[in-house]
Design brief:
Elements (H helix, E strand, L loop, with lengths): L1 E4 L5 H11 L25 E4 L5 E14 L3 E13 L8 H15 L4 E5 L3 H4 L5 E2 L2 E8 L25 E6 L4 H14 L8 H6 L12 E6 L5 E10 L2 E9 L2 H12 L6 E7 L5 H4 L7 E7 L1 E5 L2 H7 L6 E9 L4 E10 L2 E6 L6 E4 H8 L5 H6 L4 E2 L4 H9 L12
Parallel strand pairs: 4-5, 11-12, 15-18
Antiparallel strand pairs: 1-2, 2-3, 3-4, 5-14, 6-14, 7-12, 7-13, 8-9, 9-10, 10-11, 15-16, 16-17, 18-19
């Protein structure tokens, strides 16, 4: 078997092989090659697995993104995508060979981490990826969509904290592409776990709505000065209003957009497809049980490729020292690091000190963005704490002020 890099000339073979791996047929691109999810593929970052006689049997690709870390640091991240093996060649080592080849290439490029969305949860842990952000679907029956009156605990006559002074305008997706791109970019730079959406994604309509040109109505929120600072793209079918994503620069903007869609006439329920866990919307409703949570699931998986660089890249909110003994069985590596945090910055160097925690590189990926507490993985038997103080110390160090969340599909 041969694994080789792809070029633009390989696009059709790559797309056909990938679709065959999933038993699907490609859609027809719009004029100019856009309007399909693979329009933004970076063919200089793709891989093809070929049999001895040159037949393609597997694919793997990567996008060039920026990932927002705790502390609002932005780092390059490889977004692994389009991974598939033909049914005739599964369980023959093709996937593992492609993953090893890809990780080697990513390190050669100087990438410090890679991310992906896992089609099946058991697959990518063995390659060093761990679930790092989570999302859920929230369904609200229209008849139970009333908001509770705000509770005021401040100065008499003062507006409630987070009250909205802006306005909402209804547009069609085709009318507001530049607004969506600008607002999303502002949002993702402040949201840990968020990925960039390069301009060519928007220009080519690559991905899912609202990036794709699929017909959608868009509620655009503007601040008191008329500047767009949030949006909610939605469609209505069979009495259900489905919000593809709600992008807001603060909680007041999100609330205003939620009020708008929940007040829509002639619908029986409103579905918010991507809501961060512990989002306050359910608490804002007069009937707490009206917010029905479903599809509470993982979203972004993280794989650290350069542990010292990755740990020093993010921001930290508590001082302390932690010795991490990290095993990377897929790449056959085992290293021990001293993580020292002072004044929000970290230093990470090899050490021979006794470890505080022993963990797999996939577990380090899970705790990296602050969306999974180390103590949870200790209780689950994933991470070994070598003394009683290790778990609370690790929790305090990795904890973030803002939970990570990722909306981008790739």
């Amino acid at each position: 078997m041969e694994i080789r890099s792809t070029t633009d000339k390989d696009l059709d073979v790559f797309v056909d092989t990938l679709h065959a791996a999933f038993g699907r047929f490609p859609e027809t691109p719009t004029e100019g090659g856009g309007g399909v999810w693979w329009a933004a593929l970076e063919m200089d970052r793709g891989l093809l697995a070929l049999t001895a006689d040159g037949r393609p049997v597997g694919t793997a690709g990567a996008y060039s993104f920026e990932l927002t870390l705790p502390g609002e640091a932005l780092v390059p991240a490889a977004g692994v995508t389009a991974v598939g093996v033909l049914p005739s060649h599964r369980r023959q080592g093709v996937l593992g060979a492609m993953m090893r080849h890809q990780l080697t290439e990513l390190r050669t490029r100087g990438e410090l981490l890679s991310v992906l969305l896992a089609s099946e949860a058991p697959i990518y842990g063995r390659f060093g990826y761990g679930p790092a952000t989570y999302t859920q679907r929230l369904t609200v029956p229209r008849r139970q969509a009333a908001f509770a009156p705000p509770r005021s605990h401040g100065t008499a006559g003062a507006p409630p904290t987070g009250s909205d002074t802006g306005s909402v305008e209804l547009l069609r997706r085709a009318e507001c592409g530049e607004i969506l791109e600008e607002v999303y970019d502002r949002y993702r730079r402040a949201q840990p776990g968020a990925l960039s959406r390069p301009h060519r994604w928007w220009a080519l309509g690559a991905g899912q709505p609202p990036v794709s040109p699929a017909p959608r109505y868009v509620a655009v929120h503007r601040d008191a000065d008329g500047v767009p600072d949030g949006y909610a793209g939605y469609s209505v079918e069979s009495g259900t209003l489905t919000v593809d994503e709600t992008i807001a620069t603060d909680d007041a903007v999100f609330t205003a957009l939620a009020r708008f869609v929940l007040g829509h006439d002639l619908v029986t329920q409103v579905v918010f497809k991507h809501v961060p866990p512990e989002h306050p919307l359910r608490w804002q409703l007069a009937d707490f049980r009206a917010g029905q949570v479903s599809e509470d699931t993982d979203w972004l998986w993280v794989r650290l490729l350069d542990i010292p660089r990755a740990l020093t890249a993010r921001g930290w909110s508590k001082d302390g020292e932690l010795v991490l003994d990290v095993d990377d069985p897929f790449l056959g590596e085992h290293d021990r690091y001293l993580l020292t945090v002072r004044d929000g910055k970290a230093d990470c160097v090899p050490t021979d000190r006794e470890p505080d925690l022993s963990l797999d590189v996939s577990d380090l990926g899970s705790v990296y963005l602050g969306g999974t507490a180390p103590s949870t993985l200790i209780r689950a038997g994933h991470i070994r704490a070598h003394h009683p103080a290790a778990a609370p110390l690790a929790d305090a160090l990795f904890r973030t002020d803002r939970s990570p969340h990722c909306l981008h599909w790739f």
